[in-house]
Design a protein that fits this description.
heterodimer, A: alpha+beta, 6 helices, B: about 150 residues, mainly alpha
C-alpha cells in the first residue's frame, strides 16, 4: 500500500464523517429542556443509576490494571491483619479464664466502615406535589441547588411533578432538577 | 444560591443549547446510530446535572461522558445488534456513502479511534487516554482501520 493511498483514504474518511455530522441540526430539538418531560423519574431510579458506572471516569478494561492489583493486594493485607488480630484477641481471652469462653470474640470494628455514611452527602427531600417556590426553598434549606424545567402535565400549574434525584442521598451543593407543571 | 454566585458556571440550559449538536454528531459517528447517540448525549447531560457545581470544565466533562458511554455501550453489544438492517441512512454522495458503509463494518475500537482522530482531531496521546489503551495500540487500531477503508481492499 503506497502512502498516497493512505492520504486519499484519510481525506475521504474526513469528508464522510463531516458529511454525516452535517445531518445533525445545530439546535437541539426540544428547545431548552436538558431533561425530557414526563417519564423522567421512572428512567432515573437511583437503583439503576447506582449500578451504572460513573460516566466521568474512564472505564477500565476487563483485566485488572496495575492500580486495581495494588488495591486488591492492599485489601488482602488488611483482611489478613484483621484475621490475625481476631486470633490474638481470642487467644488472650483464653488466658483470662475459662468462664469467658462463651462470649463470642467477634470484633465489631470490622463491620463499621461499611455502614458509615459519606459526611458530604445529604438526604434529598421529596418535594413532589409542592409548589415550585416551596420546593426550591426546601431544597435550598437542605443544601441543594435547584434547576426548574417546565413540563406539560394534568397537575395544576406551578406544581412539582417530578424531581431528579428523587430519593436517597446526594453531595451537598449538587443540583436537583425539578419538573414543574405548566398546567393542562 | 451562594454556590452559583461564587463559581458562576454556565447554566445547564446554555450548555445544552451550545453543546448538544456537537456531542450528538460525535456520538453518531462513533456508534453508527443517531438514536443511540441522542440517548447517550441525554445521559451525559443528566450526569452533568447531578454534579454541575463540582465540575471544573463542563464541556470536557460532557465530551468525556459521551466517549465513555459510547465505549460502555459497544462492550455490551453483539456485532449483529450493532448493525440493525432498517436504520434510516442519510443520503450521501456515492463514494462517501461507500466509505460510511465500510466504517459501519469496522470493529468498535477501530471505529472509535478513527472517529476521534479524523473527526475530533485528537492527538494519538489523547485518544490513548480516552480509550484507555497504549499509544502503540491506538496507532495500530488507526492503521488497521484505514486499511479496511482502502479502495483496494474492498
Amino acid at each position: 500500500m503506497s502512502p498516497r493511498d493512505h492520504t486519499e483514504t484519510e481525506a475521504r474518511l474526513r469528508s464522510t464523517l463531516q458529511a454525516i455530522a452535517r445531518v445533525v441540526p445545530d439546535e437541539p430539538p426540544a428547545a431548552a429542556a436538558p431533561v425530557p418531560g414526563e417519564p423522567l423519574p421512572v428512567e432515573l431510579e437511583p437503583a439503576r443509576g447506582s449500578v451504572r458506572p460513573d460516566p466521568t471516569r474512564p472505564s477500565r478494561p476487563a483485566w485488572p490494571s496495575g492500580r486495581q492489583v495494588r488495591v486488591l493486594v492492599a485489601a488482602g493485607i488488611a483482611l489478613v491483619a484483621l484475621l490475625v488480630g481476631g486470633i490474638v484477641v481470642l487467644a488472650r481471652d483464653d488466658t483470662h479464664g475459662r468462664e469467658r469462653v462463651e462470649t463470642p470474640a467477634a470484633p465489631a470494628t470490622h463491620d463499621t466502615p461499611t455502614t458509615t455514611i459519606d459526611p458530604n452527602s445529604v438526604a434529598v427531600p421529596n418535594v413532589v406535589g409542592k409548589s415550585s417556590a416551596d420546593a426550591e426553598a426546601a431544597l435550598t434549606a437542605a443544601g441543594f441547588a435547584s434547576y426548574v424545567t417546565t413540563v406539560p402535565s394534568s397537575q395544576p400549574a406551578g406544581t412539582v411533578v417530578a424531581q431528579d434525584p428523587a430519593t436517597g442521598r446526594a453531595p451537598r451543593g449538587s443540583l436537583v432538577t425539578l419538573n414543574v407543571s405548566l398546567g393542562s | 444560591v451562594a454556590i452559583e454566585e461564587s463559581h458562576a458556571p454556565p447554566s445547564l440550559d446554555t450548555l445544552y443549547r451550545s453543546q448538544w449538536a456537537g456531542l450528538v454528531r460525535l456520538g453518531w459517528l462513533m456508534t453508527g446510530s443517531r438514536e443511540d447517540a441522542e440517548d447517550i448525549v441525554q445521559e451525559a447531560f443528566l450526569a452533568l446535572g447531578r454534579s454541575l457545581p463540582t465540575v471544573a470544565s463542563p464541556k470536557a466533562y460532557l465530551h468525556r461522558c459521551v466517549v465513555n458511554l459510547v465505549r460502555a455501550r459497544a462492550r455490551h453489544q453483539r456485532v449483529v445488534e450493532r448493525h440493525p438492517p432498517d436504520q434510516p441512512r442519510p443520503v450521501l454522495p456515492p463514494e462517501l456513502d461507500e466509505t460510511w458503509r465500510l466504517v459501519d463494518r469496522l470493529p468498535a475500537r477501530q471505529r472509535h479511534a478513527l472517529v476521534l482522530r479524523y473527526y475530533d482531531d485528537m492527538s494519538i496521546d489523547e485518544i490513548a487516554q480516552h480509550l484507555g489503551c497504549r499509544v502503540g495500540t491506538v496507532k495500530s487500531l488507526i492503521h488497521r482501520g484505514l486499511r479496511k477503508l482502502e479502495p483496494s481492499v474492498r
